[in-house]
Amino acid sequence: MVDASGASEAEGRGFAVNVPVETRGFFLKGCAHLGYGMKSRLARIFEPSSGRTVMLAFDHGYIMGPTSGLERLDLAIPPLIPHADSLMCTRGALAACVPPEARKPVVLRCGSGATVLKELSDEVLAVDLEDAVRLGAAAVTTMVYVGGVHEKESLHNMSRLINAGNRFGIPALAVTAVGKDMARDARYLGLACRVAAEIGAAFVKTYFCEPGFDEVVAGCPVPVVIAGGKKLPEAEALAMAYRAVDQGAAGVDMGRNIFLSEDPVAMIRAVRAVVHDLEKPEAALELFRTLKNERRAQGARQ
Ligand code: 5RP
Questions:
Q1: Contact 139/158 with Cβ under 8 angstroms?
Q2: What value, to the nearest 5°, has the Cα angle with vertex 98 and ends 202 and 41?
Q3: Which of 48, 211, 260, 302 gives the lowest tally of CB atoms within 10 Å of its CB?
Q4: What is the residue with the minimal CA distance to atom 1 of ligand 1?
Q5: Active-site residue list
Q6: CB of 267 closer than 6 A to ligand 1?
Q7: What backbone torsions phi and psi does residue 73 show, to the nearest 5 degrees?
């Protein structure tokens, strides 16, 4: 038999009428109901096979200026790019040190208005979503200062960024901070993460805390990644990353503990082993030392 297009029955076997179409879920928690654009961007930021990400954060200059380790973005960042799953930076840093050929998803810092010289929570949204689209951003981000002096304004900034991102299918990352008088403990970090998710952030960044980080993650309906925080010895930073992913973190958004390491490339590769392969901290430290020694023998600058 021939159908209206002229194809014969034999040719129609490609329809596989007895094979049901597979209906897949989505690998990131709380993200199954997002649209295609959001999901495809998140699937570039997070590695689908592990469900986690190693984000390289080098946005510090937007409040700190030329801070230690990032004085020369063009020298510090390019060697690390191949080893990161995604990059978190401002549009200025993007232009300064990320070649378009890098093909890495960028989480674009969109807030401004405060520096370390004044009240950090006094931020505004400074980047139009149209510009984020022009730059090819995979996600956008700003701060939420729960309990901070400008809590309401920061939540308003976050909501506006989420609303704008929703129009373009660009997910928003909420970077949570808590007020100066509030401990970085599970109670306050959990509050900040939950609030950010409830107002629509697709993923949330917070600090690791003990005890109770597992409850911070459990109480947040979307993926949580941890900031590295101040520079620690490599052994401690790797142990922190391990404890975070072991307790449910969807990865790290790490800056100083990578770019201030005595060997930043060896360190980001060791962090990857922890985040994606759940390598134990001792083995990851051994990997760091081996890579550092190999690279030193090869005369690698970074
Ligand atoms: C500050 C940030 C930074 O990107 C963040 O702190 C990650 O860097 P580090 O690992 O150095 O803490 O979001 O608001």
A1: no
A2: 25
A3: 211
A4: 60
A5: 205
A6: no
A7: -55, -40
List pLDDT tens digits, range 26-61. Answer: 999 999 999 999 999 999 999 999 999 999 999 999
CA separation for the pair 229, 252 (Å, rounded): 11
Cα distances (angstroms) measured from residue 212 to each of 28, 241, 244: 22, 15, 11
Structure token digits, residue 250? 């969807």
Q: Which atom of ligand 1 is nearest to the CA of 231?
A: 11
At what angle are helices 281-297 and 264-277 packed, to 10 degrees? 150
Angle, helix 234-246 to helix 281-297, in steps of 10 degrees: 140
Q: Could you give the CA distance from residue 87 to residue 137 in angstroms, rounded to a whole number? A: 10
Query: Which tens digit of pLDDT belongs to each residue from 79-128?
Result: 999 999 999 999 999 999 999 999 999 999 999 989 999 989 999 999 99
Cα separations in angstroms, 208 against 2, 226, 279: 65, 6, 18
| Amino acid occupying residue 211 | P
| Any ligand 1 atom below 6 A from CB of 254 | yes
Sequence-distant (6+) residues with CB within 8 A of 289 are 266
Residue 255 Cβ inside 6 Å of ligand 1? The answer reads: yes
Residue 232 token pair: 């620690």
Question: Could you give the dihedral angle defined by the CA atoms of residues 90, 192, 185 and 255, in that order, rounded to the nearest 10 degrees?
Answer: -10
Is 63's C-beta closer than 6 angstroms to any atom of ligand 1? Answer: no
Specify the ligand 1 atom closest to the Cα of 258.
10
94 C-alpha to ligand 1 centroid (Å):
16
DSSP of 18-76: TSPPP----SSTT-TTS-HHHHHHHHHHSBTTTTBEEEEE--THHHHSS-TT-S-HHHH
pTM above 0.85, yes or no: yes
In angstroms, the Cα distances linking 229 to 65, 118, 220, 269 are 17, 20, 20, 18
Closest CA to 166 of 116, 132, 212, 134: 132
